[in-house]
Amino acid sequence: MSTTATDPRAGSDPYLPGHGDARYDVVHYDLSLGYKVEGNRLDGEATLTLRPLVAAEELHLDLHGLQVQKVSVDGRGQKASHHHGRLVIRCAARPGQQLTVRVKYSGKPRPVRSRVLGGAGWEELEDGVIVAAQPHGAPSWFPCNDRPDSKATYSLSLSAPPDYTVAFSGELRETRRRGNAVTWVYEQAVPMATYLATVQIGRYELVEHPGTLVPVRSYVPARTDRAVLAETFGRQPAMLTFFSSLFGDYPFPSYTSVITEDELEIPLESQGLSTFGRNLLDPAWESVRLIAHELSHQWFGNAVTLRRWQDIWLHEGFACYCEWLWAEESGVSTVQEEVDRHHGALAHLEQDDLLMVDPGPELMFDDQLYKRGALTLHALRVEVGDAAFFEILRRWVREHRGGGVTTDMFLEHAQHVAGRDLSALFGAWLERTALPPCPRRTGT
What we know:
Immunoglobulin-like; disordered N terminus; about 30% strand; 3 domains; Zincin-like; Neutral Protease, domain 2; alpha+beta
């Protein structure tokens, strides 16, 4: 049977067909999990507190590659079917009520595969696990309404072998040992999109990085060179202080980096936590810029989150520009030097396929989008001046913290704060494919 955009079976976002159900929001996820590293076995019970937005006779959850044993709604067993990653629960949902859905499940978690986007989600390492869920990997380890515009709070308890550390995108409340397992209990009290929820499991040691108002820490492999760690991830307190001075207070209670024993092609942020491969334990700029990039996502991506995936430049363009701001702050280069270099590189590439306001799933993580998004921000800075530019960013975070945003919202916001029409500037950079001239600040 075919589906349409209004059919919940089609999903809530055209970039991720088959994910999300716009008929309800999840208010809270309570996840009780047990994991055996040997054999990659996950046993879970998820309790979801739901708020229906419209009347419906069934609700859809996303859960890929795992087996469902039992489903209940408000304590009563419920009929459900589970096919192709969609758990369909038959129940009467009405706006204004609150439902409690409990799902018991188990299996061998693995990444969610997409022909266009590749794999994302729960992935075994040589000795442990990473969860890199952006953009469609959350259903690889818990049943969820996989939409970036629906944020919820989380409780997590995860039992693992005693010689492993469990890190989660939240605050550690306690650990307790029972038999041959240690249970790690976390809370995430700041509402979080599903793709930003992560679990990292490995043989890690905890290193604290002092120097900020919130805890900054790294979980590192035991043989990590502490001098190299200080030269790389030890810079995070200074980065956090700098970004806070530009964009407003750091938006979460703490910040954690997990450095895996394995090499990873790219790092990835989640809420209050970023994950890196050991190949980034290198004081060279190419590593340090990525550490700054992931940290800046805590403001642009995690505190302020896109409502739809076509607006990914609001995350990646902003984080890329933060790399350039940190380059200037740390004396590596100036923002204008970075602008000139990356504009020159883009000018030698074909631009016909990249439309910033709607790049398509094939190009949503293309490096051209990152760089052109950053150049768009610099063009805005040149147009309105430094004072108005940074006021635009500070107020953007303050006014939309904890919520979801779109490109149109940013354009309206920037014009309101700047007090002028910016449609020509944004039209050239975001709504057409041709690369505009390099933006250059007066005197540079």
